[in-house]
Model the fold of this input.
Amino acid sequence: MHEDTNGDGHRAEPARSPNGVDQADRADAGPAAADRTGVAQVDPEYLSLERELTVLLRRARANQGEMAREVHPDLESAAYGLLVRLDEYGRQRATELAAYIGVGKATMSRQLRALEDLGLVAREPDPADGRAWLVHLTEEGRTRVGRVREARRARYVSQLSHWDRQEVAELARLIQQLNQGMEK
Done:
């Protein structure tokens, strides 16, 4: 009979992760495994991911508010993403924008009306469907959004200047992969 001791006669404790799960119990478990009490435990990698994404998203929300105010002092933070989408993809239907942002038609209509009132977007009839409208940036909107986006890219270049360009490319690839996975 084999007794697991640590050399001083006391029973050796199994290696435990920071969340208290025996490493041997996790060997074949997935990202969330139950410990002996039946309580689900999470691998430290996923805990770390949650923590870092929380910090990143909190900073992103704050930055989005700053960028929105740089575009126009009266611009709502949430509307900045709409302007960026229109800047990158051009004319779109309100329903496409609502689906992309993840809001309902009424919310999208209200946001677009506010952007129109600020002179940043305009609507025109969709030639493919006379009942629908296409939304696009005005020249003023394109100029303001372009200036803010360029300033943001310059900050990224400055903040990541000590990174290898391949690391920056890999980070962008991994974030894109994460975003695509979360769309499913």
